[in-house]
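User: Structure please.
Assistant: Input sequence and predicted structure:
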Amino acid sequence: MKRNLSILLASLLVAAVAFAPIALAGPVGTMELNLGYAKSSTELGSSTESLGGGVGFGASYWRGVSPTVSWGGEVSVDNLGSADYTGVDAFATAYTENFKTNIVRITPAVRVNFGSLVGPSFYAQGGAGLYKVSWKYRYEDVAQVVTADDSSTKFGMNLGAGVGFPVAPTTRMNFSASYHIVPGNDVNMTDTNNLQLRAGIGFNL
């Protein structure tokens, strides 16, 4: 756990050092706030159930390096929801399992815009960085209740696309979809890959 915290703090320090010269140079780009839905389709345990999905929210910063290309970074909290499963073991004992997972991520990214720079436009983006996956697990039968929870930091990546349009001289509204590739935790989950649908608003700084 201490090692994971150290990795996150080191990443934040690197980001702060990288952004400091930009902040002193004048206009610093665009800040975006977003809210949406995150859903994983990974089957859990011995069942065919997947996490039910949940709310995700975050913030991002973008700095233009050309008229169509921007680089920046995203910080987000993504709740993948929970899943319940009821089964019978080899001794004909009924049992239930419950899984819950959420992710905190910090991902540097690149965005490429297509279309008008002042009107509606489409964009594609991709990024890679740290995903802190936290999970809770509960197993119960007539004889026992077993619980576990932990977290681990994974290296993951994402690809996405969206559309943006101006709502004010210095404000844009975005709608996007992205797919996140994230290694799994240690409770019978092969991965925590997930699809995210987001709506956001960006402010020129």
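The longest strand covers residues 145-168.
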